[in-house]
Design goal:
The protein has 288 residues and is an alpha/beta fold. The chain has three domains: 7-92 and 184-213, D-Maltodextrin-Binding Protein, domain 2 (3-Layer(aba) Sandwich); 95-181, 3-Layer(aba) Sandwich (D-Maltodextrin-Binding Protein, domain 2); 216-282, 2-Layer Sandwich (Alpha-Beta Plaits), CATH 3.30.70.120. It has eight helices and 15 strands. The strands form three sheets. A six-stranded mixed beta sheet has the order 2-3-1-4-11-5. Bound molecules: phosphoribosyl ATP and zinc ion. Phosphoribosyl ATP (PRT) binds at residues 12, 15-17, 54-56, 73, 75-76, 93, 95, 160-167, 182.
């Protein structure tokens, strides 16, 4: 392949987004040459150069053109207020930025934060939220271990990232308001040249194929011919199901694609309609 131009992508050096970012690239068929050196890596089968950075720096590096695109949590993107465009939601690194207070305290509503001290790393996001809610509070910026602030008398409440809630729980806190929901997003510099945009388009095409595949399953089943119409209506697939005659008279094999979300519901219906030998297989890539 004639690949002169390389797109530069910034991903987290280590931390919660690292594994999923690398996995996503791998699922897109992109292999990195020196992933272990962890400063810079090159893909040998795709025009991509990977920079490994701290997540907080990624939006600014992309805005400034040091990298062309990047993968970062929306929470960090909104906090840094970097002038970049969000190209695609990646579906991993899901979490929420929430306000939490000591477990024993009563909570009636967001107005309870009036005049209170709130510790957070996300000063800008919290400020915007409180402004929208017309609440005036004292925001204390701390860079790490925000969850211990109320316990040591540094704050009345915290605003921090929550995923399972166990950090809050073990620190005697309860979540009372969601400030924002977040997931990893693909961001891009706003002034990319058409050669870069073409590579992004190729990358996006692959990302979408991977995401689509994860949302769907391939299903194979045997159906009595007199129920074929009903059964194929249940599993319309991408265009229409494949129907092949079985060696056993009066029976057909039906192949189709079903969505993960409705998976069990559909399988139950198919069984009721007389489908037998139902096989469900994961899909690796799916291009619609
Ligand atoms: O070193 P660098 O600056 O690059 O990394 P970092 O330490 O700032 O970030 P990192 O690796 O912790 O998180 C990177 C991104 O992952 C965040 O910006 C979020 O978009 C996303 N993410 C998803 C999370 C979590 N889940 C998460 N649970 N980020 C942080 N946490 C922390 C949270 O701060 C709290 O301490 O996990 C704890 C809460 O988790 P639970 O499961 O106990 O609720
Ligand atoms: Zn960080």
């Amino acid at each position: 392949m004639n690949e002169k131009k390389q797109l530069r992508i910034a991903i987290q050096k280590s931390g919660r987004l690292y594994d999923d970012s690398i996995r996503m690239l791998r699922e897109c068929g992109i292999e990195l040459n020196n992933g272990l050196q962890r400063l810079k890596a090159e893909a040998y089968n795709f025009p991509l150069e990977v920079f490994f950075l701290r997540d907080d720096d990624i939006p600014e590096y992309v805005a400034g053109g040091v990298a062309d695109i990047g993968i970062v949590g929306e929470n960090v993107l909104v906090e840094t207020q970097a002038d970049v465009q969000t190209v695609h939601r990646l579906g991993f690194g899901k979490c929420r930025l929430s306000l939490a207070i000591p477990k024993g305290k009563k909570y009636t509503g967001v107005e309870d934060f009036e005049g209170k001290r709130i510790a957070t790393t996300y000063v800008n996001v919290l400020e915007q939220f409180l402004k929208k809610k017309k609440v005036k509070a004292e925001i204390h910026e701390i860079s790490g271990s925000v969850e211990i602030a109320p316990g040591i008398g540094l704050a009345d409440a915290i605003c921090d990232i929550v995923s399972s809630g166990s950090t809050l729980f073990t620190n005697g806190l309860k979540e009372v308001e969601t400030v924002m929901k977040s997931e990893a997003v693909l961001i891009a510099n706003k002034n990319l040249k058409s050669a870069d945009l073409k590579i992004i388009e190729r990358l996006l095409f692959r990302i979408q194929a991977v995401q689509q595949a994860k949302r769907n399953k391939y299903v194979l089943l045997n159906a009595p011919n007199d129920k074929l119409d009903l059964i194929t209506a249940m599993i319309p697939g991408m265009k229409s199901p494949t129907i092949l005659p079985l060696a056993k008279k009066g029976w057909s094999s039906v192949h189709s694609v079903i969505e993960e979300d409705r998976f069990w519901e559909i399988i139950e219906e198919l069984k009721k309609l007389g489908a037998q030998g139902i096989l469900v297989v994961p899909i690796e890539k799916m291009v619609v």
